[in-house]
């Protein structure tokens, strides 16, 4: 094939990698509160747990820290993860029903996203949003 037939490369997904003090505790939180499915790789050189929901994957790795310092503490601002989705109102309602700690309730932002922010078991702020305009 000539050069004109090469497939264009494109990025498709990113994974959220979260170092955590307790792999099983964080995994259980995401499974019970947010309906993620866990696949555990604990007997490998770098123990980790992969969490899956829909097209999203979170990789939990073991932190040497006993307590996580989220971005807003280290840097003064910022989320620790952002997921985009469809029909996020349904996910928002699931979170409310599971008593997930809400930082910002579902709202329209000044940059045109409908989004909400929750705080996970490790004090991280995770946002879920969708572009509306």
Description:
By secondary structure, this protein is α/β, with parallel strands linked by helices. The chain has one domain: 2,3-Dihydroxybiphenyl 1,2-Dioxygenase, domain 1 (Roll), CATH 3.10.180. The chain has three helices and eight strands. It is globular, with a radius of gyration of 17 Å.
What are the key terms here?
single chain, 133 residues, alpha/beta, 2,3-Dihydroxybiphenyl 1,2-Dioxygenase, domain 1, 4-stranded mixed beta sheet, 3 helices, 37% strand, globular
Classify the helix fraction into a percent range: 10-25%
Largest sheet: 4 strands, mixed
Order of adjacent strands in the largest pleated sheet: 1-4-3-2
Structural class: alpha/beta
Determine the CATH superfamily.
2,3-Dihydroxybiphenyl 1,2-Dioxygenase, domain 1
Radius of gyration, whole Å: 17 Å
Which spans have pLDDT < 50 for at least 5 consecutive residues? none
Q: Provide the CATH architecture.
A: Roll
Summarize the structure.
The chain is α/β, with parallel strands linked by helices and 133 residues long. The chain has helices at residues 23-34, 71-75, 88-97, and strands at residues 16-20, 37-41, 48-53, 56-62, 81-84, 101-108, 113-119, 125-131.
Structural topology:
Layout: E1 16-20, H1 23-34, E2 37-41, E3 48-53, E4 56-62, H2 71-75, E5 81-84, H3 88-97, E6 101-108, E7 113-119, E8 125-131
Parallel strand pairs: 1-4, 5-8
Antiparallel strand pairs: 2-3, 3-4, 6-7, 7-8
